[in-house]
Amino acid sequence: MKIELKIDRDQLNAINTIMSPLDVINFQSLPRAGKSNLAACFELRQKFLQKSIKQQNNTKPFKVSIPYYLADHLLHYLNNYKGNLSPYEANVGLMLKSQLHQKLL
Question: What is the pTM of this model?
């Protein structure tokens, strides 16, 4: 089952900013129990970065389709994110959490 998120380029950039701390995590040093969740987040990060490259000239909103299990991991990541964000990025995070919560019910 696929979950579709409707976002624009600026929101996608904010999502990439929220997920940027994943770039510095040393995957090999983590315990086995946490690796599966982190691997799903890495997969999402890669998908959003690729989408950002493809949509860099697009000014209209577009849909991002992700599998249910990745949407669930994204919601979990956003709920547990503790970094410093600009007000716009924080609002994008809240809107995305709201969209995901509605679609994952």
Answer: 0.86
